[in-house]
Amino acid sequence: AKDERAVAAMAGLEDEEFMEGRLLERLHKSRERSVSLIKRKKEGVLSEQGKLACEVCGFDFEEVYGELGSGFAECHHLVPLAELRYGTRTKLSDLAIVCANCHRMVHKGRPMLSINELQTVMQR
Questions:
Q1: Counting beta carbons within 10 angstroms of the beta carbon of residue 31, is it exposed (0 to 12), middle (13 to 18) or buried (19 or more)?
Q2: CB count, 10 Å around CB of 23?
Q3: Rounded to two decimals, what is the model's pTM?
Q4: Would you state the torsion angle of the CA atoms of residues 100, 101, 102, 108, taken in this order, to the nearest 10 degrees?
Q5: Number of C-alpha atoms within 13 angstroms, CB side, residue 108?
Q6: Which of these, 113, 101, 80, lies nearest to 121 by C-alpha position?
Q7: pLDDT, tens only, 56-78
Q8: I need a labelling partner for 36 at 20 to 30 A (CA). Which of 1, 13, 15, 105 fits?
Q9: Residue whose C-alpha is closest to residue 98's, from 65, 60, 69
């Protein structure tokens, strides 16, 4: 009965329309990321482990997507960029290889979750 009500409620919503695409101009500051730092981290992990598997869930883009996923993963800064002052030096060990889903979940928590905390959440 509950599932039937949910399906009935959604039936009329699939064709509901919304305005999108308005052009906005925004001015904001953002922290610069080092492209070479990310590249070196990925190269080091690939050399050491032979793949770029997420440090939280183990997802490997190349294993799932083949050549399209080759060399693809995200790098997570263990110390949030927002907390870094200009001139702070980041080491390769200050980064973690993560998949896009785990990266979003790490940043969803307030305060931000650690890699270990997210692994614990996933084990529940």
A1: exposed
A2: 4
A3: 0.80
A4: 110
A5: 9
A6: 113
A7: 999 999 999 999 999 999 999 99
A8: 105
A9: 60
